[in-house]
Design a protein that fits this description.
With 260 residues, this protein is of the alpha/beta class. The protein contains nine helices and twelve strands. The chain has two domains: 164 residues, Spore Coat Polysaccharide Biosynthesis Protein SpsA, Chain A; 80 residues. 42% of the residues lie in helices and 23% in strands. The longest helix has 27 residues. It is globular.
Length: 260
């Protein structure tokens, strides 16, 4: 049997989808605690969290890494599984973790698992393999210096690989969830500012070649062509995202006052 595990979520206005994530967490026999850190939701997110979680706390938003790092430190268990509000723990992953012996948890610092991504209700195979390191021992890992993602590296112990997936957006059929320009603009601005602070810059070749490279990668190398016009749509979306990210970086380096 695995040790006691805390499942943690950070939330902000996730009423439309967080209940499925919480339900999947509650169905895990090895889950000893569900802990939610909310950043001031104004919809029904907190009420749903209080229905399913063991603890719900308010913490102002900083970034993905810092809020999740804070949640891990507040968990009552050393082993933590991070879950986003638009994700669910699959039955395969739930059962696989339940079957892990204590010896594996003693030897490992973290476990990675595939994340199966859905867009418009369809499995986006071009995004595979999307391995994430969500199950970890908080004292045996160090957090990567990446404010837009929560990722960790083992500092004591090995890294294990699980086969069961986390399901991402599996119940979301809305066009706006992936193609809404306003939502994309917020993320692109965040990524552009982070890369500017890291010293990255954009020139002619980045703007001209990187979007094309993204299209070729997602459509040909990652097999988007297998999904027909849907795969073409995914590859085009990837190219546009890359173009806008580098466009934002170009803007910041020519007008650095806008990075404030």
């Amino acid at each position: 049997m695995p040790p006691k595990i805390t499942i943690g979520l950070v939330t902000f206005n996730e009423e439309s989808r967080v209940e499925h994530a919480l339900q999947s967490a509650r169905e895990c026999p090895w889950c000893d605690e569900i802990l939610v850190f909310d950043s001031g939701s104004t919809d029904g997110t907190v009420a749903l969290a209080e229905k399913w979680a063991d603890r719900v706390e308010y913490h102002p938003w900083v970034n993905f890494r810092e809020n999740k790092k804070l949640l891990a430190s507040a968990a009552k268990n050393d082993w933590v599984l991070m879950l986003d509000a638009d994700e669910e723990i699959s039955g395969e992953l739930r059962d696989e973790i339940a079957e892990l012996g204590d010896e594996k948890f003693q030897r490992h610092a973290l476990f990675t698992m595939p994340r199966k991504n859905y867009i418009l209700g369809r499995h986006a195979r071009a995004l595979d393999p999307d391995r994430v390191d969500r199950l970890f021992h908080r004292e045996r890992v160090e957090w990567r210096d990446d404010p837009t993602h929560d990722a960790r590296l083992p500092k004591q112990g090995n890294c294990g690989r699980l086969r069961g997936p986390i399901l991402h957006n599996s119940r979301d059929f809305a066009w706006e969830s992936y193609f809404d320009g306003q939502l994309a603009a917020v993320r692109i601005d965040t990524v552009g500012r982070d890369e500017w602070q890291e010293g990255k810059r954009c020139g002619f070749w980045e703007l001209s070649l990187r979007p094309l490279a993204a299209f070729l990668k997602f459509y040909f190398l990652k097999g988007g062509y297998r999904d027909g016009t849907f795969g073409l749509l995914m590859a085009q979306r990837a190219a546009v995202s890359v173009q806008l990210k580098y466009g934002r970086l170009w803007d910041l380096q020519h007008r650095p006052s806008r990075a404030a």
